[in-house]
């Protein structure tokens, strides 16, 4: 190998390595942007190993949350179906929660039908509406036998950018 081929090969390796480092830097940046940050008390940026550690912990926490939600879902389903048989009400299949959302020019009407044991869904609907910056105008409910009927009226602010 002559000296010019040797320097050309070194330049190629340097370029390949530089591209690899840039790609890794971009991937780390993307990963870091997906993780909510608590913010450091000193205000200094986190080191790369700390960022990766934080992302790993966040993913593990999300996995635990998913497992907890699956268990909650399964327990709710099993409480609705004792001995694996689905409840029936007036000859029809009963769902523990029924939600109907009607939208008209930014006005929302949410109708929520739950069993008395599933009242927390009302709170969840209100929380979601607030998260989506909807103004809850009024909410009402009535109970018939073991079923609660909730009606929520909300106004959604729609920003249209042209």
Q: Outline, from the CA principal axes?
A: elongated
Q: Which fold name corresponds to the CATH topology of the domain at 97-156? A: Defensin A-like
Sheet with the most strands, sense and barrel status: 4 strands, antiparallel
Mean pLDDT: 80
Radius of gyration over all CA atoms, rounded? 27 Å
Helix residue percentage:
40-55%
Low-confidence segments, ≥5 residues, pLDDT <50? 84-93
Broad structural category: alpha+beta
Count of individual beta strands: 6
Instruction: Name the CATH class of the domain at 97-156.
Output: Alpha Beta
Which sequence of SSEs, written as H and E, runs from N to C?
HHEEEEHEE
Strand content: 25-35%
Report strand order across the widest sheet. Answer: 3-4-6-5
CATH architecture of the domain at 97-156: 2-Layer Sandwich
Number of helices: 3
Distance between the termini: 62 Å
Keywords: Nucleus, Transcription, Transcription regulation
Pfam families: HLH (PF00010)
GO cellular component, one term: RNA polymerase II transcription regulator complex
Biased composition (Polar residues): 30-44
List the helices and strands and how they pair.
Layout: H1 3-34, H2 48-80, E1 88-89, E2 92-93, E3 97-104, E4 107-115, H3 120-131, E5 134-144, E6 147-156
Antiparallel strand pairs: 1-2, 3-4, 4-6, 5-6
Helix pairs in contact: 1-2
Written overview of the protein:
The protein is built from 3 helices and 6 strands; from the N terminus they run ααββββαββ. The chain has 162 residues and is an alpha+beta fold. Among the domains are: 10-34 and 53-74, no CATH class; 97-156, Defensin A-like, CATH 3.30.30. Strands 3-4-6-5 form a 4-stranded antiparallel β-sheet, covered by helices on one side. The protein has a two-stranded antiparallel ribbon with strand order 1-2. It is elongated and about 90 Å long. 4% of the residues are buried. It is found in: Nucleus. Residues 30-44 have a biased composition (Polar residues). It comes from Opuntia streptacantha.
